[in-house]
């Protein structure tokens, strides 16, 4: 019997197309695509592309290819004011692509060790790891994950996704130093390396002037590190509502 061959990686365009199809409602709302240049945030550097999936898809595919081929800068900041516009789906699409391109790498949204993390949960996750209370099940049994293991995963992951960097709701406390410190270190560890951040925080200067919301929530250092990468706004109505 001839030796088996590994399956060919699925083309990125096909993965993105499939992911967006799964996320779509039967009659998906139209989306707008806006992309910034590499400069400090002002609304004038964003480009409005044709509304609708037909206008968005070629630009989105081109952007992803340019990032993966080193023609655009990381991190990729995916944001929209409201929910359901495809931020997380797009991030997971890229993570899926890396799963095909890097043998043995799995895009498992439940495991920080596999390249995906919920921003709000990061402080609790690292505190649990520091105390030896973060466990991961594997084929080898139950493994204790320490904070050094988490930071090792941050450094080694082919692609890291930080999901839902958001404004605290009225019911939530303000983002504390733990969130700031962890985010800043992740940005430091992933300089010029694949990192995707999804968010509802506007990185642009308000029309009337003043500091961008991203600066007010964190500071200039964090905001500048993010917007010196690639900023993509996915605008429009929620795709989750029929």
From TrEMBL:
Cite the source lineage.
Bacteria, Pseudomonadati, Planctomycetota, Planctomycetia, Gemmatales
Superkingdom of this entry's organism?
A: Bacteria
Q: Which InterPro entries match?
A: P-loop_NTPase
Q: Which Gene3D superfamilies match?
A: P-loop containing nucleotide triphosphate hydrolases
What name does UniProt use for this protein? Answer: Uncharacterized protein
